[in-house]
Amino acid sequence: MTLALAAGLDLEAAGERLSRTGRTRVPGLLGEGAEVLHQALTGPDMVWYRAIRNPFNADVPVAVFEAEPVAEQARLYGMAHEEATEGFQFIFDRIRLGQARTMEMPLPPALYELHDLFNSEAFLGMARRLTGDDRIAYVDAQPTRYMPGHFLNGHTDAHEDAGRLYAYVLNLSPRWRAEWGGLLMFLDKGGAVTETFMPAFGTLNVFRVPQDHAVSMVAPFAGAPRYSVTGWWRTRPPA
Which whole number is the average pLDDT over 124-135? Predict the structure, then answer.
């Protein structure tokens, strides 16, 4: 296995912050493995699906979506934007690794290796030490890509019977500017931003579920897509 937890992670300080605020950051989680994953996400073998919230929870291959007439793409985006004005909506690209593995999709091997690492005793033990929560038994994962115009509206990640304990974001954009958007924002009950995490390459963000948060829209002038791997630390695998 080429991916592994980096040595010398300061879990004590990160755990104290998580206990105090409900969220924390662990820089340099995988060391040089972050570059391996970035290359996998940006390589020619990567497969992306466009996720727009819909009643069927169904994503569409990006190649299929972009083959639609421009007018049809604009119509779908317009519907999503209308829903986003006052409600919950999102637009971004992803691939769900658990489903992809079941379907034996030919993704870059590093992604399946990451899924294995996340569910190894070494990683689960790290997660339990960081959180002080021995209930963590499974980590799911979905690589995500936010292109210009992509966003994720405010929500809590609460999901009845899903076993979600903590949400995480492993940031995999080598360079990012705050002006480019794509910021992980934490919100109070009135919708005000209380704290913001900017994507920092190789840094793991972790926060307790449920918790109000959003990802700000990536600007049209952003110098690159926003890459990450996201998911939840759960009490059990999803059904």
Answer: 98
Q: How far apart are CA 144 and CA 136, in angstroms?
A: 23
Q: pLDDT value at position 195?
A: 98
Instruction: Give pLDDT, residue 190.
Output: 94
Listed in sequence order, the residues at least 6 apart from 4 whose beta carbon sits closer than 8 Å to its beta carbon are 30, 31, 33, 117, 122
Residue-wise DSSP of 43-110: STT---EEEE--TT---EEHHHHHHS-HHHHHHHHHHHHHHHHHS--EEEEE--HHHHHHTT----HH
Q: What is the pLDDT of residue 40?
A: 98
Q: Could you give the CA distance from residue 222 to residue 182 in angstroms, rounded to a whole number? A: 9
3 state SS for 118-137:
HCCHHHHHHHHHHHCCCCCC
Structure-token pair, residue 191: 């919708």
Distance CA 36, CA 111 (A): 10
Please indicate, yes or no, whether the overall pTM of this predicted structure exceeds 0.85: yes
CATH code for the part of the protein at 11-46+109-234: 2.60.120.620
Going from N- to C-terminal start, the domains of the chain cover 11-46+109-234
Encoded tokens for 16: 């104290």
Residue 141 tokens, joined: 């994962």
pLDDT at 210: 97
Burial string for 28-39 (b: 16+ CB within 10 Å, else e) reads bbbbebbebbbe
